[in-house]
Each structure stands twice: as structure tokens, then as C-alpha cells.
Design a protein that fits this description.
By secondary structure, the chain is an alpha+beta fold. It is built from nine helices and ten strands. Bound molecules: adenosine-5'-triphosphate and magnesium ion. Adenosine-5'-triphosphate binds next to strand 1 and strand 3.
């Protein structure tokens, strides 16, 4: 049975559209801003759902192909032992394109990785982080990769759930990306998009298909989550589980985090500048909802 009906998702899309027209997300229950997607809570008589809206696609075929890739991604992650949150991918036709949503049951806030580890010492957090590392280790291959960051996992009783399937990191035998990432970077202003597509994307994506890249990214991201205190003692666990040689160091993690934070800050600044041009020069509503300035620790 479907998680949500078409009319329920249409009502939600309408509310998002109104927020875009108004230029702010007040009145929406935003559960997460991705770098380019937005996640909103939808309450219905039959439960609460997380509805994550991807960037509109240029055609129905493109949206359907993407939905099928998400399905294949979920299957492949599960085949590697990852417990993926049930996901549906309805598509809505809108003037700006074909909008694909990732719909999932809403997980309780306290179960999400960062909240779950929030008040734990490094020692208390270690077994949970080890479980995540083991699943990353079991699933990263040249053709498959989860986005291993802590915010994509939830601890639900004894279950460790994985929730971020909106960006399927899948490659074919020749190493070609199955997802056309150029569709998703359409949310970036043109000059930035060109730079990202041409120079940055391959390197960003390669890091997901390497356990070293995953480890450094996971640990660095703890700083962004305000969990910087617990990350140094977790470095040896990463070295052990991923059998990294040479071993990664605290210094390498901090350097990675710094350059990563600069890249994303640059992209967000470019999008805010783009929004300013829309509003003040083109006098049109900016078609996306941007995250508030992100507090980055460290
Ligand atoms: N099913 C869910 N229940 C509760 N919260 C959720 C759920 N799905 C997502 N969230 C919240 O929204 C955040 C963002 O969702 P998700 O990780 O799927 O997308 P994203 O990281 O924004 O995507 P992208 O891959 O485009 O960066 C999560 O880190 C989590 O805090
Ligand atoms: Mg995520």
C-alpha cells in the first residue's frame, strides 16, 4: 500500500509552492535542508511522513528514470546488509518540471544519528559508530556507495536504519555514473554549475566509492554536527574497520573538513547571490528555498 496518496503529496507541493512565492519557509515543517533538496514533514490521518523534494526534472522520462535508479539503489544497499527506510518516489507534473519526491515514514527525532550521539562520550558512541563503519565497509564498491555521513543513519531500538537514498551513488562496470548529476546541479546558478560539473563533481563522487573517502568525510562531518569532541578517539576505529593503509590522521580529517566546508559555503553564497538577482533585478520569485546560513563548528 502506498505511504501517501497523490492528493496528499499535491497539497504538500502546493504549500511548498506558496513558500517559494513568499520567499521563506515559515509555515512549513522543514526537517532538513540538503545541499540542494528540501525535506518537509507531512502529517496525515495515517501517520507522519518525511517528504524530500528533489530538483525538478526536465522531462517525465528523466524523473522516472531517476525514480527507478532510487529503487535499484535501495535493493543493492539492502543486498549488502543495510536496513533502508521504506521509500516511495511519486512524481508530480509542475510548470517548472517534473518533481520527484522521496517519501518515507517519519523517524522520531531522537533516533537520528547526530541527535542520538549528542550527549554521548566518545567511548559510549564508539560501538554505534563502529556499526555504521561496518555497513559502509560492506557496501562501498566501485559501482555502489551509500552517503555514509552520520545524519543519514538512525538508531531505532536494535535497528540501524539508513535514510538517504535521494542521490543514488551507482556506477556501471566502466565507472560511468548512472545518475545524471547535471540534472541535480540545475539548482545552482549557471557559472557555478559549470565549474561544479566540469571540475568538482568527479572528485566529490570518487570519494564516496572509497572507504578512505567515506571515513574522512564521516569523521570530518562530526565537526559540522557539533560533535568535534568525540571524533579523535574514533579515528583508530576507522583505521581498523576499513583497514586503511596508510592510516588516516586527525590532521587529515580536519584539513578535509576545512576544504569541504569552504566548497559548500561557496556554493551556498553563490545561490544567495543568484536569489538576490532574481528578486532585485529580474523581479521574479527565486524558485528554491535556501537553508539558513549553516553554523559550522570548528
Ligand atoms: N524518514 C525521515 N525521518 C525523519 N527525518 C528524516 C527522514 N529523512 C530525512 N530526514 C532528515 O532530513 C535530513 C536530510 O535528508 P536526506 O539525508 O535524505 O537528504 P539530504 O542529505 O538532504 O540529501 P542530499 O543527498 O541531496 O544531500 C536527514 O539528515 C534527517 O535529519
Ligand atoms: Mg543526507
Amino acid at each position: 500500500m502506498a505511504l501517501v496518496t497523490t492528493s496528499e503529496i499535491k497539497v504538500l507541493e502546493q504549500r511548498l509552492e506558496e513558500a517559494v512565492q513568499a520567499g521563506h519557509a515559515e509555515g512549513l515543517d522543514v526537517i532538513g535542508y540538503g545541499e540542494i533538496t528540501i525535506g518537509v514533514k507531512l502529517s496525515t490521518s495515517h501517520g507522519d511522513f518525511a517528504c524530500k523534494r528533489l530538483v525538478p526534472f526536465s522531462s517525465r522520462e528523466a524523473a522516472e528514470r531517476y525514480g527507478a535508479l532510487i529503487g535499484s539503489y535501495v535493493e543493492q544497499l539492502e543486498a549488502r546488509g543495510i536496513d533502508v527506510v521504506e521509500t516511495e518516489t511519486p512524481i508530480l507534473e509542475r510548470p517548472e518540471g517534473h518533481v520527484l519526491y522521496c517519501v518515507q515514514p517519519l523517524l522520531a527525532p531522537g533516533t537520528l544519528g547526530p541527535a542520538f550521539l549528542r550527549n554521548k562520550s566518545a567511548e559510549e558512541a564508539a560501538p554505534y559508530v563502529r556499526r555504521i563503519f561496518e555497513l559502509i565497509e560492506a557496501s562501498v564498491t566501485p559501482s555502489l556507495a551509500p552517503d555514509g555521513q552520520l545524519s543519514n543513519w538512525a538508531f531505532q531500538g536494535n535497528r540501524l536504519r539508513y535514510l538517504d537514498v535521494g542521490t543514488p551513488f551507482l556506477r556501471d562496470q566502466e565507472g560511468n555514473q548512472l545518475v545524471d548529476f547535471a540534472e541535480q546541479t540545475r539548482a545552482l546558478p549557471a557559472p557555478v554549475r559549470v565549474i561544479v560539473n566540469r571540475f568538482l563533481l568527479r572528485g566529490i563522487l570518487d570519494a564516496y566509492h572509497s572507504t578512505r573517502g567515506q571515513a574522512v568525510d564521516f569523521l570530518g562531518n562530526l565537526i559540522k554536527e557539533g560533535l568535534g569532541d568525540i571524533f579523535p578517539p574514533l579515528v583508530p576505529i576507522a583505521n581498523e574497520v576499513f583497514r586503511l593503509a596508510p592510516e588516516i590522521t586527525e590532521r587529515e580529517v580536519r584539513a578535509h573538513y576545512k576544504s569541504d566546508a569552504q566548497t559548500w559555503a561557496f556554493m551556498q553564497a553563490a545561490r544567495r547571490a543568484d536569489r538576490w538577482v532574481y528578486r532585485n533585478i529580474r523581479r521574479k520569485p527565486y524558485p528554491y528555498l535556501l537553508p539558513p546560513r549553516i553554523d559550522r563548528y570548528g
